[in-house]
Design brief:
Blueprint (H helix, E strand, L loop, with lengths): L1 E2 L5 E2 L5 E2 L1 H12 L4 E11 L2 E10 L5 E8 L16 H11 L39 E5 L11 E7 L2 E8 L7 H5 L6 H7 L7 H15 L6 H29 L3 H22 L19 H25 L3 H7 L7 H7 L3 H5 L7 H4 L20 H25 L20 E8 L4 E8 L5 E7 L2 H11 L8 H8 L3 H4 L2
Parallel strand pairs: 3-6
Antiparallel strand pairs: 1-6, 2-10, 4-5, 5-6, 7-8, 8-9, 10-11, 11-12
Helix pairs in contact: 5-6, 6-7, 6-13, 6-15, 7-8, 8-13, 13-15
Amino acid sequence: MKTKNNIPVGIDDIPVLSKEDFHARVSDLLSDDRAHCIAYFALKKENGYRLFIGTANDASQDIDVQATEITPADEPESFTPMHNAMHAFEREIHEQFGISFRNHPWLKPLRYSFDRYNKKATPDNFPFFSIDSDELHEVGVGPIHAGIIEPGHFRFICEGEKVLHLEIVLGYQHRGVESMMRGGAPDLKKMLLSETIAGDSTVAHALGYVSAIEALAEVKPDTKLQAERCIALELERIAIHTGDTAALCMDVAYQFGQVTCEALRTIVINTVQMWCGNRFAKGLIRTGGTNYPADSAICRQIRSNLHETVTRYRDIASKILSLPSLLARFEDIGVVTKEQALLAGLTGLSARASGLERDIRKTHPFQYYNQCANAIVTEPSGDVLARLKQRISEIEQSFNNINRFLDAIEHPESAQKRPEYSPALKPNQLCFSLTEGWRGEICHTVMTDSAGNIALYKIKDPSLHNWFGLALAVRNQDISDFPICNKSFNLSYCGFDL
C-alpha cells in the first residue's frame, strides 16, 4: 500500500504479508538509496504481534506501508545486516517486546524504556563493545556532566589520544511520552505534551502532532495558518543555528563570534515571544486554528527583526570563515562521509553536511511547503566546518523562506479559526506525519482504534539516528576533538529518551 505524508490509511487495508514476503518486499524497497525507513514498530495482538513498517521514497514522495504477523516464538529475519540504519528500530522492538531478530549483529537495549520487556537490563549493565589489549585504554564520560545538560554516558576506546571507538548509552531519563499520548481522544494535555518532546524543537514536534491529528480528523487548515506555522518553524531553525554558531565559536575560544551570535539568537527568540508570549513558541501551534494570528503589525516586526539579525549574522559569519585559527580547528575534523551518512540513516543537517540530500520540506512536503517549494542545500565535506557552513546556508535559506511566506499572506487581518483540541478522529486509521525540524526528520505515527481513540503513538526524533553519526565522526580523532564534534551535531538526549 502506498500513501503520502499526512494521508491516513485504513488499518484493515494494509496488506499483512508472510514473514518471508514482508522481508523481501521491505528489503527491495530499501535497496533504493532514495528510500529510507521512517517507522518500524510492533503492536501486541491476542496471539502474538503485528509488525508495521513505513518506508519513504524521496523521489516519488510515496510512503510504502507493509505489515506482518508473528507469534511470540517467531524470530523474524533482521534487516540490519543489509540495511544498517534499521538496527535502531529492531533494537527498540526487541527492548519493548522481547522479540528476537534472526541474524541481527547485536540485539542490545536502545533506550531502557520504563515498560521494557527485560527489567533487569539497565544502563549499569550495558554490554559495551570492548577490545582486549594492553595498549588501549577506555575513557568514560557521564552520565552526570558538568553544567546542566541531560544524562548520557560516552565510552571511548583510545590508543593514546586517538579515539578508535565511541559507544553512546542513553536512556537514563525515559519519560514515557509515547504511553502518555496513547488512549482517549486528542486533547489539550496531549497538545502540550507534544511541545515538550524536545525543548529546542517545540514548533517542529508540535507541528508533527497537529498535522497528524488534523489529517485523522479531516480538518484542513487554511493557507494563512499553514504559512504562519512554517514561518514559526523557520524562526526556530534560525534561532538554534545561530545559537549553535555561538557554541562552536565558544569551543575554540573565539569570544567575539560567541557573544555576537548569542545576541542575535536573542533577537530571534524575542521576536517569537512578541508574537505568542513565549520565546520557544509554546502555545503558538494548535490543532484546527490559532490563538495568535499574525496581523500586519506582527508581520512587519518579523521582517524588521529578521533583516537586522541576518544582516549582522552575515557579517560575523564572513569573519568566522576567514579566521585561519578557527578554520584549522574545524577543517577535516569529525568527518562523516556521504556513504557513512547513508548507511547510518542520518537525517537533516547532519546528513546534508555530508552531501546527502535529505529534507522533508522538499521530498515529502507538509503544510505550506506543499505550495512553496524548498530547495535542498548541502555541503560535501562532512566535517565540523561543513556542519558550520551548512548552518550558515540554512539561516540564509530560512530568511528567504520567511519573507516568501510573509508575501503569501495576502490578508493578514482576515479572521482565523480558534483551536479545536478534541476533534473526532476517523476510526481504524494509521497516519505518518513527517516534519523537517532544524535538526532533521521528525516522524509522528498515530494509529486509531474502532472508537477513534489513539491506540498507538510513536515518535522518532532525528537524534535516534544522528547520535550514531557522532560516534562515527570521532573515530581516528584526538579525544580533545570530541567537544567540537559534539557541538557540531548538537543532538538531543530527551529526543532520544522518549
